[in-house]
Amino acid sequence: MTPRPLPGLRRSGSADRAAAAADDAMVTALVRLRGRLQDAELPFDLPGVEVLRRSRAAMIDQLEDYVIPRLTTLEAPLLAVVGGSTGAGKSTLVNSVVGHRVTAPGVLRPTTRSPVLVHHPDDAHWFGQDRLLPDLRRVEHVTDDPDSLQLVPTDAVPAGLAVLDAPDVDSVEERNRLLAAQLLAAADLWVFVTSAARYADQVPWEFLRQAAERSTAVAVVLDRTPDEAITTVSTHLARMLATRGLKDSPLFTVTEGPVDADGLLPRGHVADIRGWLDSLAADTDARTLVVRQTLDGAVRVIARQTYPVSDAVADQARVATRLREEADRAYDHAVEEVVEACADGTLLRGEVLARWQEFVGTGELLRSLEERVSRIRDRVVNAVRGKPQQAERVTTAVESGMETLILEHAEAAAEAAYASWSQQPAGAALLAGAPADLGRASRDLRRRAERVVRDWQADVLDMVRSEGADKRSTARYLAFGVNGLSVSLMVVVFAGTAGLTGAEVGIAGGSAVLGQKLLEAVFGDQAVRTLAERARRSLQERVTTLLEAERSRYSELVDAVTLRPGAGEELRVAARRVDDLRYARAKRAGASTTTATTATTGATGATGATGTTGTTGTTGTTGATDATVDPQKDPGDPQ
């Protein structure tokens, strides 16, 4: 059977303008969708994320390699990509269809490493670097570089048609397999070549399954088939195509035969497929139908597959938020504990308490304080016998006590955050890649804590010095000195009994009162309250800043992960826009892709895949329906 050219589809000028406007809107929407997909990072290793990463990468590649460039150049030649199994004879078939050697067949596997694109010389401008497959460097010489696309102009290929010889889909080299998948995703028409020995292989059928899913135009060539096996094998292959959604795909058979000195099959062996390709090349509208079918199917599948990626992006953002909150919770608790311990009397014990008692004296003075606090201001002033070196000892004890307190709570926070993150796959992965052991406080924390405490003590000293600027000539100020009054202010800041038990309560309480009375004797009641509040606030701010640096070890791991706020929802909105435009276009046209498929099939006078020798199919439609999308319903929602 000789395929005849397809009838043209006639449209009015206004219809053409409406279609062009719709195409422009779709290009804009697809460019935006590509950008949103690029923003939709999936950095955390959550269950099922690897599949979605591959899906996202494939969608971006197909948008850049095929969909967007193709939609902006619908009048470009139809690109038929010849792919298939290892040893199926793809390169020999391409050479034989063209009529002379344009690609290199061979007995070594893999044979085709660099893709070869054969086109008419008048169509050369359609295949520049900025067109289809922009990542592949254009060359005009024979090469084995898989990152290059060899262009071969020849008058043997009719204008309006280009044939691309792709690497094996089941190549032993992964780079070749990936390149084959990329090229097939950029095809207007898949010409899938198999053989009597390889037609049931699993890998090629996975590609054919994807073709059916995308409504991609497909033609299947059963190559290298002995005469006696043609009927049996082609019939079985036709049934397999029909059960997998490809019943309307044309099936060609090429019998096994000798090749000439140039490696070409006899012309009659490939006459049917050559004639079918010529008929497509000769009819612009027929080519447009094929291109539209493949484009619409690709856009539909990309939009549909975007929604799971959008959901995954939202899940990733929630994981990042949860990890950040868990680290915040651990370190917020540490800050609260340190601040509370610095204000509830906890520090007024042990070494600090002993050094303070040495400074202010003990015995009758402190015992009387417990009984007659309200009547002792003058006795306090007269009884304090501290020396400058004793005040320094109190300062040193305070420094040591605060350092220990900070280190203990920093270690506890690090352990808590580490344990929480370790229980989650995403957190465990971040911890594994951390530059240091985050389960412990930073190695230099003791040094930084020492600096913080000393800076706070200096701040307290400045407060006392500033407050006493107009009192330096008084006997009381001179008697106590700046250091002594600063130590007293520290004790007042640490005052309280919530953290003390037994005898410590009375002693520390009395000590705090004594310190306050010393300050009041010099500065007055209101000034002492103001100084104490300023000193507490300064201490809290410094401790918070110190532990914030410890917290940042965790938060920086999350920040280093690329998660743009709102990326998931923006991706969903972009996919909805594409679906809305598809739906509107189908509604305006008054027909879905199924109608186009029917027209295409009827135009050839073909009867479908029957398994007979020669042309046994249609123009390359898959028979798969192209579902339209209700703009009022989110395709990502459960049906």
Q: Which helices and strands appear, and what pairs or packs with what?
A:
Elements: H1 13-39, H2 49-71, E1 78-84, H3 90-98, E2 116-119, E3 137-139, E4 148-153, E5 161-165, H4 174-185, E6 189-195, H5 202-214, E7 217-225, H6 230-243, E8 251-255, H7 271-282, H8 284-341, H9 350-360, H10 364-371, H11 377-383, H12 388-422, H13 425-432, H14 445-467, H15 475-493, H16 503-523, H17 525-559, H18 567-589, H19 593-604
Parallel strand pairs: 1-5, 1-6, 2-4, 3-4, 6-7, 7-8
Antiparallel strand pairs: 2-5
Run of helices and strands: HHEHEEEEHEHEHEHHHHHHHHHHHHH
- H/I helix tally: 19
Radius of gyration: 40 Å
Sheet with the most strands, sense and barrel status:
8 strands, mixed
Structural class: alpha/beta
For the biggest β-sheet, the strand order reads: 3-4-2-5-1-6-7-8
Overall geometric form: elongated
Strand content: 5-15%
Give the terminus-to-terminus CA distance: 44 Å
Q: State the low-pLDDT regions, or none.
A: 1-11, 106-112, 362-387, 497-508, 591-639
Helical content class: 55-70%
